[in-house]
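Board notes, transcribed. Complex of a protein with zinc ion.
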Amino acid sequence: MRKMEITPNPHTVLRDIFGYSSFRGEQLNVIEALLNKQSALVLMPTGGGKSLCYQIPALLLDGITIVVSPLIALMQDQVSALKQLGVAAACLNSNMDEEAERSVLRQLSESELKLIYMAPERLLSPAMLNRLHSLEISLIAVDEAHCVSQWGHDFRPEYTRLDQLIERFPGTPRVALTATAEKHTRDDIRQHLRLQDALEFVASFDRPNLSYHMAERSGYKQALLKFLRQQHPGDAGIIYCLSRRKTDETATWLHQQGFSALPYHAGMSAADREYNQDTFINKEGVIMVATIAFGMGIDKPNVRFVVHLDLPKSIEGYYQETGRAGRDGLPATAWMMWGLQDVLTLRNFIIDSQASETVRRIEHAKLDAMVGLCETPNCRRQMLLHYFGEQLDQACGNCDRCLAPVETFDGTELAQKALSCVYRTGQSFGVAHVIDVLLGKETEKVLRFDHQQLSTFGIGAEMTVKSWRRVFRQLINKGFLLANQQRYGALQLTQSAKPVLAGLVNVLLMSEPKTPSKTSTRKSHDLPSDYDQELFDRLKALRLKLAQQQAVPPYLIFHDGTLQQMAADKPQSEEAFLALSGVGQHKLDSYGDVFMQIIDEHQTADQQL
Ligand code: ADP
Ligand code: ZN
């Protein structure tokens, strides 16, 4: 590895090592605080660029930076990425053989490293603490800092012991980074990591390059095929399902349809899971069909879509899972299919759980908020950000509601028909039967209960089953009706149904969404200009070959965005190659010639045509 020349300021490091031209958001402020030996708490969404916040100070300060990271996959990925940039970084973890470990320990004691990544268990062993004590520690960075909090979904008890490290290095600046901005978590981080006086940097949690879509499900297969074929052919993505069975079935079915799709869930053997995860990371265009057991520790930047085939149980979960798309800042899609049955199933889980009354109440409220996001006639992004305490002044132009606005209409009469039919049938039947009565269908069940005699029999015959389901779904989600799960989903009127039946309040309903008339504005950080697709494909093939030779994921060589820019600008000099976003001096030295050769060949071939 080439010896690093420490460059004197954040801007030159950003340009020469990382190959980027400007800082994003709060990055520079965080870096300057750390360089001034102040500690910091950094809250940025996934893909916001947290790593640079400590990596650049690590390169500018004397001594070594300790990075605490919870997962081996995460640290390996980061270290490989740094090595590709010519940075002296290493990690220590339980996956390494003795020789590799000895070599890292030697580099460590000879002060050859600028960054060392470790899991807390390893870091906090007395032997390691003693070893570190004899070194010059420039900075302590705690990545995924929410792991310290029981409130989060990734609580790791070892993280709460990090105060031991901090006590050993009282004067060393610390930075804690997370993509979870929730208040309890934030407080826990401050307390456990002794960051009471630290500066706080909060970025917007908006992910402008993600396009949000939520559709009603009526048989998901055709819609999913259309989505994958039309919007994301050849792209890598994640499809989340609620159950293991659906995960397996969907993966098999997609495979039959010609996609390279693999399953991932907790019911599989560890070896199979690892194999599928490696394939997803190291190959191009693989679709992972998974339960939410999959995701944490996946740093793959070019996940182009995240699909939910079932409703997530909270907005927090939805935001986190969709956040795995588009880390590289290029356009990506969050696409969800949901139905009333999902809401009922999730309610059941909560009711059947052993959790305390309080926890259940919170879970119901979280589910209500999620359903609210699905049912909103307005901009999804505005509502999503509002939930996290942020205000977006204008509708986003990049969600299904903005792209294909839905109309609301006065649905009072429909609501009255529906509610009174529930009442007349005795509040003992599920949606399907009540709709049969409204439609005037003489089913076996209708006849058995003499429901053809009711005044509401056939009063809704002008509408389809599907339209009635939409009405019932909205009435349940608005709280006029309750589907009693102890009684097989029997519909019951709530208190708020009375004023509707009495004609005292109006009910606004949404009409069926149209297919988008506009296309998204496809916002992204560094929008690549129109590029030569054929050249892009050739560059990608070269990238894959190089990645396989080094046994690293392709994105560690170059990101998609860099290749797209390459296929647009077609650089043929070192200077032009260096100007690409994501190309620093080391990458130019390692890969400039081979990539420019492909560009040259491509140009010559073009001229001969
Ligand atoms: P996070 O850890 O916050 O999810 P990363 O640190 O992995 O995000 O950064 C996300 C992506 O954005 C990475 O590919 C990174 O190289 C890129 N990136 C970060 N900062 C910049 C910048 N200032 N200019 C261009 N790209 C950047
Ligand atoms: Zn919008």
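The first strand starts at residue 40 and ends at 43. Residues 533-608 form a domain with the DNA polymerase; domain 1 fold (CATH 1.10.150.80).
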